[in-house]
UniProtKB/TrEMBL annotation:
Protein name: Protein SprT
InterPro entries xrefs: SprT-like_domain, SprT_Zn_ribbon
Pfam families referenced in this protein's UniProt entry, alphabetically: SprT-like, Zn_ribbon_SprT
Start and end residues of each SprT-like domain: 7-158
Species per Swiss-Prot/TrEMBL record: Pseudomonas turukhanskensis
Domain of life: Bacteria
SMART domains: SprT
Swiss-Prot/TrEMBL GO biological process terms: response to stress
Length: 164
């Protein structure tokens, strides 16, 4: 899996070098990115991070668009300096002029959301409940108090949990 990704990163760099007639510093490439982002260019660390799950699920488009998108950030930084806008005209020119790709800021890959447990709290108000995250529920168990803004009563765990 990383071989194709690394090869595409290298191809993007070679394409930029041919276009600009100069050499560019190669970044470290990592598949240690989770969540909603497909890729991130860490400009100060010279590091490209990619989401392995989104890569597996969208390989062709990911290799073509996402890899070029992130490499374009690195090229733009080297060409135009650190004070440019992340998706500004310099980056857009690289996406369109060098890679002949649309300068899309965001991907449209489907993201699997994991279910989350909510802990239901209540107050003196009728038909009101407050779903707390696991983190907030733990804080309550350690002594933190939360209050209803309407009735000013302390919110109390109802014993109910729900999956969202």
């Amino acid at each position: 899996m990383p071989e194709l990704l690394n090869a595409r990163v290298e191809a993007c760099y070679q394409q930029a070098e041919a276009f600009f007639r100069r050499r560019f510093t190669r970044p470290e490439v990592s598949l240690k990115l989770r969540g909603q982002k497909a890729g991130v260019a860490h400009l100060d660390e010279n590091l490209l991070r990619f989401n392995p799950q989104l890569y597996r699920e969208n390989q062709d488009h990911f290799l073509k668009q996402t890899v070029a998108h992130e490499v374009a950030h690195m090229i733009a930084r080297e060409m135009f300096g650190p004070h440019i806008q992340p998706h500004g005209e310099e980056w857009q020119l690289i996406m369109q002029g060098v890679y002949e790709l649309p300068p899309d800021r965001c991907h449209t890959y489907e993201i699997q959301r994991r279910s989350v447990t909510r802990y239901v709290y209540s107050c003196a108000c009728p038909d009101r409940d407050f779903p707390f995250s696991a983190q907030r529920h733990t804080l309550v168990r350690k002594g933190r108090r939360y209050y209803c803004r309407s009735c000013k009563a302390t919110l109390v765990f109802s014993g109910e949990q729900r999956e969202e």
